Amino acid sequence: MAIAEATRARAVSPSRGQLIPISAQDVRITGGFWAGRQKANAEATLRHCLDWMERLGWIANFDRAAAGAEGPSAGREFADSETYKLLEALAWESSRSADPWVDEAYRTLAARVVAAQQADGYLNTRFGGPGQPARYSDLEWGHELYCAGHMIQAAVARARTLGPDKLVEAAIRLADHICEAFGPEGIQSVCGHPEVEPALVELYRVTGHRRYLDQARLFIERRGRASLSEIEFGAAYFQDDIPVRDATVLRGHAVRALYLAAGAVDLAVESADDALLAAVQRQWENTVGRRTYITGGMGSRHEGESFGDDFELPSDRAYSETCAGVGSLMLSWRLLLADGNPKYADLMERTLYNVIATSPDAAGTAFFYVNPLQRNTPGVEPETDAASLRAASSQRAPWFEVSCCPTNVARTLASLGGYLATVSPEGLQLHQYADSEIETTLPDGQPVHLRVQTEYPNDGLISVTVGADSAEPWVLSLRVPEWARGIAVLVDGDNRSVVYGSTATVTRAFAAGDTIRLELPTSPRVSFPDSRIDALRGTIAIEAGPLVMCAESVDLPVGTELADIRVPGHARPSPSGHDGASINAVYEQTPAAPWPYIPAKTEVTRNGADLNLVPYYRWAERGPSTMRVWLPLAEAEWRKRGTDE
Amino acid sequence: MAIAEATRARAVSPSRGQLIPISAQDVRITGGFWAGRQKANAEATLRHCLDWMERLGWIANFDRAAAGAEGPSAGREFADSETYKLLEALAWESSRSADPWVDEAYRTLAARVVAAQQADGYLNTRFGGPGQPARYSDLEWGHELYCAGHMIQAAVARARTLGPDKLVEAAIRLADHICEAFGPEGIQSVCGHPEVEPALVELYRVTGHRRYLDQARLFIERRGRASLSEIEFGAAYFQDDIPVRDATVLRGHAVRALYLAAGAVDLAVESADDALLAAVQRQWENTVGRRTYITGGMGSRHEGESFGDDFELPSDRAYSETCAGVGSLMLSWRLLLADGNPKYADLMERTLYNVIATSPDAAGTAFFYVNPLQRNTPGVEPETDAASLRAASSQRAPWFEVSCCPTNVARTLASLGGYLATVSPEGLQLHQYADSEIETTLPDGQPVHLRVQTEYPNDGLISVTVGADSAEPWVLSLRVPEWARGIAVLVDGDNRSVVYGSTATVTRAFAAGDTIRLELPTSPRVSFPDSRIDALRGTIAIEAGPLVMCAESVDLPVGTELADIRVPGHARPSPSGHDGASINAVYEQTPAAPWPYIPAKTEVTRNGADLNLVPYYRWAERGPSTMRVWLPLAEAEWRKRGTDE
Which residues of A touch B350 (CB under 8 A)? Predict the structure, then answer.
């Protein structure tokens, strides 16, 4: 099988679109924020995931299936997918580093998976074997096609990095089996958890086999027509309530909704289906404008791990699952490639720093599954030798009974280089800023070599040095985040210009050594919530560059509680320490009341003190704490107007 | 078996306590708010419940068990309890009315239940039969003792109204079986859903058999010691996290927590266990001060139908299950009897008008399961011929797959007379106001006859006329709700006095025709939330007497939405129409924004208009609507201070 050179190591590889992804192998993150994350991922997270899955028998499930063992498999119904996501992470990592452990781990694991495949291509350790439920007997909850989708994605990553192998061949057999089983003459339904849809389109891109694209279209067009049975969460839970092209906003289970939307963009792009693309763009806009947290997090409800209504965005009960952050990146990246609008990269940046980076600890061996914007109780340290419940603790946990997040973070970090920049006939676009080297080729064949130097996000200076002369002029485009517009400054030699738009561009035939500098303002700033968000009325948040800040009880004076903190309306935050901020605050102590709904304002005791803030991604690093992103304004200031006038 | 005359028709019958309940048969609700509810219950709800349970096969489960039929039963694992709660409602109704249908329905149903009992006293249609799971093989979720508890409560109601029968005998056999199976030498665990605890104490009160009290003590002392297996919701879900006497607040599944606390009060009272009583009093205080909605509703989370953290009280996601309202009445009534503090009756009044009365429609054939304080989307009419999901609609539904609420409302309304008044050595206490006649006896043997005339809660005038001369002086005590203190007026002949305390009392040897009048202020008033409730910051609620008011979109001018309503801080509500209110409001239209977290206040368009309010219990009577209890203050008033100073 020939894998086109053009698709090598691209995270996603559409055949059409405004922007063209470059290979993750063309980008080397050399230092700073993301280099540390990639290092922990490579050196700790991958082994950590492998160890836990061996220990819990999730990988042995494949050996048992290969041996035709009787009865139920270990773990939950989606356990196979964790092995696949780890394989995908290992495949990406193999193209990033030369660690022989990575290669060996990949090959051993892939062989065990391939051995479990049935003769007709079917592959799942929980269904269809002796003493197991029949294949496709539980489409609502069985996750068979979901698992298959992740298997195919692992194979796609392999095909695009070190090239085709037995896992890729197995994925093709699996995809062929799915096309038989669910094709025009097959089962007229879909999987309760979308994922096979983008996977099939990506496999089409790798192989050129059109039947995979056609099958993805069948799955996407079938959804929203009640082909799945009724469940207590309602059909919106798995997006079976409204056809994809008729929906106006994402709803139901957040990860399901985002994976499905990503698949719909893939299908729309490969089919030149502009109406479908426009439908997903509209869904993205309404979701980002009304159903997304300031962190970029998605999913307002624990019940059903789902989106809520418009403007239903409670901080304390925010679910904001790490995997929904991954799904959001998948969707926004595809839309960015399709239409080139920097707003998609803006949301990706917000999500990378405040959801993806929040989940793992610095060591890469403990994770947040949910990412609420507030903790009212400090919680307790999770057990380190037992899998935790998904949302039970305020602390990162080593593993979960439903452990989708660690491997999802792992595959994202391993492929991160592929998301920093794109090319187009005009030139090269830098979307995310990391200390890095980029060595790639423009569509016209011109080689480009860039050295990006920055301590972003702790500092807003981004310096881009061109490594070689260009024969022809091209456009270097630098994204200016929404919060920096009108204050960002582009420096090109002696020229300094304020940037008002969403990109700063320099067009010329660059000479080796040319340096372009972008200055983004990263001092702490105040943000206000839309007045329709009930949960945030009367509060403010502090942001600094792309980082959302939070207050933690560990930083409070003894005897005070986070629930008593109020911020005077005139207070302005200032930078503090390495990457923190500080704001003038008031500690209001309200007397205990037998009934919390009272006819007039209560008398409170007030003491002023500075409140320290740290980046949200660092919260809970110092042990159990209560935490708040949104800080209430001093109540007296506005309630007084309410009652005394 | 002798049933002591003293316990006849009492809803609960403690042997100790500050106040003594009177028989429900001594109270006749003659008109007004609750008379209408009792009439709908008697004439429609009881038949409605019976019809649905026949149709779904829940009652036939007993016939199948009696016949030794193979395999699973219809409905969910707690379906038996619905038949028992209906039996309890029929038993209470039989003492209130002389409808032969009620008597016949009770006897037919009781016979079918009794026939299903096993020779050793065990009774459950889902466990222990051929092809069914073994008895007590799933204490976490099986609900066997929970169902048994409701069976015993039905028998207690029968014993106290028309007297012992075969159902009462069966309940005694069932209780004896439970004492064998779970006694000191038996299974050392508890049921995942408390309910058998208060039932056993009540059966002890009926029979005098001490082993039932001892068994209740075993169950209550065992809980909180992790005798149940771990579940994803955590041990707090079924209160197995902390021993009852060590807990400081109610937590976990709200109905479970409230039923358990009610049983603990029963045990404490009968055992003279003041430490246990004090523990539950403390739990009540912390729960009411920090975890209760303004409606009296309890349960802030859909996930686990549970209490949230302190001050976690979102309006839109309020669960506030109708059954938690019933559980709250059970608990507060027991505490009122134990220590006589009117605060318990205050909460009962709030819960009766704003939770219990909200659930059924006026016809008594459709019900709310959850009672949120806000609906952001109007929802759709539920199907009338299919059981609804618990929380899926903004409209009352005829039945639910988990249909605990309709029968719980039915048994509460049928026994409501028993909750209006108590006696004590000092005299008689009126706790709840309804147009009624009360004919009872004081502990010293003096007969008392009172005629209460009122249109409460639509009007605050309560007139109490004594029907016969008293030989000795006694104290007539009238509860003054917390919101009326300092403005309520007691009128005794020519004497008018403002009442500052929680009761208005008149002490004398009353003469026939003496009339005492209490004037409670029921004009609409403004209430403010505790500043620690994030979900309510910057909002106000309107209350009128014991009624919480709400705004519904059906009352808005065309083209406006409830989400756009703001109330100026200086606005004051005024009465409107029969039982509504009106307040000056502003409609703010915020322009659509691509991102809802912005660096400064937005410009909005404002139009003023009066906003109509209706009592919350009447919401959704006029079809699908959006709804709000808490109204945001006009934002400009306070945000301006925040940003412009």
Answer: none
Q: Give the whole-angstrom CA distance, residue B437 versus residue B31.
A: 10
CB A86 within 8 A of CB A136: no
- Tell me whether the omega of the peptide bond preceding residue B457 falls within 30 degrees of 0, making it cis: yes
- Residue A584, Cβ density class (10 Å: 0-12 exposed, 13-18 middle, ≥19 buried): middle
Contact between residue A1 and residue A207 where contact means Cβ atoms under 8 Å apart = yes
Is residue B430 within 8 Å of B421, Cβ to Cβ?
yes
Give yes or no for a contact between A585 and A632, defined as CB atoms under 8 angstroms apart. no
Residue B637: list chain A partners with CB under 8 A.
Answer: 638, 641-642
Range list of H helices, B291-438: 322-339, 342-351, 404-414
Alpha-carbon distance of B460 to B522, in angstroms, equals 6
Q: Which residues of A touch B298 (CB under 8 A)?
A: none
Q: Distance (Å, rounded) from C-alpha B170 to C-alpha B123?
A: 9
Cα B298 from Cα B306, distance rounded (Å): 8
Nearest C-alpha neighbor of B260 from the set B617, B268, A461: B268
Nearest CA in chain A to B635: A531
Find all residues with CB under 8 Å of B620, minimum gap 6, and list them: B368, B394, B395, B396, B552, B627
Q: Which residue of B has its CA nearest to A311?
A: B596
Which tokens hold the place of B37?
């509810």
Look up the ipTM and state it. Answer: 0.92
Closest in B285, B311, B595 to A288, CB measured: B595
Positions of E strands within B3-146? 20-21, 27-31
Which of B315, B528, B604 faces A601 most closely, judged by CB atoms? Answer: B528
CA dihedral B279, B285, B286, B289 (to 10 degrees): 180
DSSP-derived 3-state class of residue B549: strand
DSSP β-bridge partners for residue A298: A292
Residue A375: beta bridge partners?
Answer: A627
d(CA B419, CA B12): 9
Best mutation target, A383, A531, A635, to test chain B (most B CBs within 10 A): A531
**DSSP assignment of B612-641, as one string?**
EEEEGGGTTTTSS--EESSEEBPHHHHHHH
The whole-angstrom separation of Cα A445 and Cα B28 is: 94
**Confidence class for position B111, pLDDT limits 50, 70, 90:** very high
Identify the pLDDT of residue B304: 95
In chain A, the N- to C-terminal Cα span, in Å, equals 78
Write out the two tokens for B624: 């699908």
The pLDDT value recorded for residue A582 is 96
**Mean pLDDT split into 10-residue runs, chain A, 645 residues:** 62 90 94 97 98 97 96 93 98 93 97 98 97 97 98 97 96 98 98 98 97 98 96 93 98 98 98 98 98 98 96 97 98 98 98 98 95 91 68 80 94 97 97 98 95 97 96 97 97 97 97 98 95 95 98 92 91 92 91 87 78 96 94 66 34
Among A602, A576, A588, CA closest to A632:
A588
Q: Which residues contact A104 (CB under 8 A, 6 or more apart)?
A: none
Cα–chain center distance at A620 = 20
User: For residue B304, what is the nearest residue in chain A, using CA coordinates?
Assistant: A303
Q: What CA–CA distance (Å, rounded) separates B316 from B301?
A: 10
Query: Exposure of B227 by Cβ count < 10 A (0-12 exposed, 13-18 middle, 19+ buried)?
Result: middle
- What are B219-249's pLDDT values in tens digits? 999 999 999 999 988 999 999 999 999 999 9
DSSP secondary structure of A191-258: -SS--HHHHHHHHHHHH--HHHHHHHHHHHHHTTS--SPP-TT-GGGGT-SS-TTT-SS--SBHHHHH
Among A302, A376, A597, beta carbon nearest to B303: A302
